[in-house]
Amino acid sequence: MPANPTKWNVTGLSNLYDTQAEAYYQNFTYSLQQIACNTTNTAQYSLARNCTDCARDYKNWLCAVQIPRCEDFSSSLPYLQPRNVAANFINGSSPDPNSPDSNATLKERMSSNQSRNWLIDNIIQPGPYKEVLPCEDLCYSIVQSCPAKLQFGCPQSPALAMSYGKRGADPGQITCSYLGAVYYLNGSDRGRGSVIMAFGVAISASLVMLLLG
Q1: Exposure pattern of 177-197 as b/e (b: 16+ CB <10 Å)?
Q2: What is the pLDDT of residue 194?
Q3: Within a 10 A sphere around the Cβ of 160, how many other Cβ atoms?
Q4: Mean of per-residue pLDDT scores for the chain
Q5: How many CB atoms lie within 10 A of CB 5?
Q6: Band of pLDDT at residue 108, cut at 50, 70 and 90
Q7: Residue 82: beta bridge partners?
Q8: CB-CB contact of 196 with 177 (8 Å)
Q9: In the beta sheet, which residues pair with residue 160?
Q10: pLDDT tens digits, 30-66
Q11: Which CA distances in Å does 159 have to 2, 152, 154, 182, 211?
């Protein structure tokens, strides 16, 4: 996850993410309580999914979105999304303005000049990094599992590609982020340069129901 060792130790950083997560998930449960979850089959919003499925899939999505998995900014892996490119690195230096990862165009794009979670840029302040985007199926799962009344929706292309990644054929290469994903630590180049911390059980959420990154 994005970190800044000059401001936060591991315990403090974990508590920061978890506190935000708990507050957001609590707000989500208030919305879910407005749904008639415990009713007859004919009155349920779906015969295939229920509120338990909705809460589980929402939790999985928000863990991936609010606590992003990241790689070092120097990584050239094609599935990574540059974030916070207009900021300086922790040591005070600036990204190379001639680099394709920090050019003027990227600095003008919301998807690359800031993080998905406001807490990262404003409080943690890790500088530029590259995000392993959440898997797009996490977003689709919420739409399928949750009642239409909650108005969940996934972005359309081309915004989808800037917000979500696709799972690769090799299970040892994490091309998109999901709860429980682990690297093969003995792989030669896999995960090189990663900021690897436990992708924990925090259950962040948001009242914003449009699932754009």
Answers
A1: bbbebeeeeeeeeebeebeeb
A2: 34
A3: 17
A4: 80
A5: 10
A6: low
A7: 130
A8: no
A9: none
A10: 999 999 888 887 788 888 899 999 999 999 998 889 8
A11: 23, 16, 9, 27, 11
CA angle, residues 76, 116, 161, in degrees to nearest 5: 55
Domain boundaries, the chain: 10-195
Structure token pair of residue 180: 């429980």
DSSP 8-state class, residue 9: -
Q: State the angle between helix axes of 51-66 and 136-145 in degrees (0 to 180), rounded to the nearest 10.
A: 150
Q: Give the pLDDT confidence of 171-206 residue by residue, as tens digits.
A: 778 899 988 776 554 443 443 333 333 333 333 333
Q: Which two tokens mark 200? A: 């924990």
Helix axis angle for 51-66 and 10-32, nearest 10°, is 150
Length of the chain: 213
Give the range with max mean pLDDT: 79-88, 103-112, 125-134: 125-134
Dist. CA 54–CA 181, nearest whole Å: 21
> Six-digit token pair at 193?
């340069």
SS3 string, 147-185, reads: CHHHCCECCCCCHHHHHCECCCCCCCCCCCECCCCCCCC
Contact indicator for 163, 40 with CB cutoff of 8 Å: no
| CA angle (16 as vertex; 12, 22 as ends), nearest 5 | 135
39 burial (CB, 10 Å; 0-12 / 13-18 / 19+) is exposed
Nearest to 116 by CA among 177, 68, 58, 176: 68
